[in-house]
Amino acid sequence: MLYNNIQIEWLGHASIFIKANNKTIYIDPYDIGNIKDKADIILITHNHYDHCSVADIKKIIKKETIAVIPADCQSSINKSSIEIYTKILEPKSSLSIDGVRILAVPAYNINKPFHPKEEYWNGYVLDINGTRIYHSGDTDLIPEMKNLSGKIDIAFLAIGGTYTMNSNEASEAASIIKPKLAIPIHYGKIIGKDSDALNFVQLCKQNNIDAEILEKK
Question: From 113's CA, which of 24, 47, 164, 196 has a CA 20 to 30 Å away?
């Protein structure tokens, strides 16, 4: 998909590929196959194996790659043979890398034990040439989403249920955030079905939110 001259692809599960301004960005690369584009920036939302995947990070790094991570991902990277420059970011903190502004936002469970708020795990908002892209990370529908209302161009929202929002909850999140485009992620591999994505899109459109399912690359 091309959006405001930004190339965006869904690589399956919660993995997103973004290319803009000659910069290649991956978010939560997991089971991504053989990728020819090496990463300038890698964003990791939290340390679960399907988000902080050492094997997949190894596939896409180069000497200049920078990984933006929560603090507890550092130990996973240190234990591996990966040589990569890391920047630790906690929710409500931000930084800029080569003109890409990266804001970490809260991502946590409210009524589930899998992603405690106390872990300080991340969702991310990227600002690329004024286009703002939100990746929810593994989260429930949380009060902090109100802070994003009307400020997001593309929202990647986890819909799989069990560990994250389900499709109904994610559509409610979309109604709160009011992105220009909502895209479902975190389904089709470990948890969540194609039917969940279809339900999400239908509910979004009923609430006058444009939504689209990306074909896995």
Answer: 196
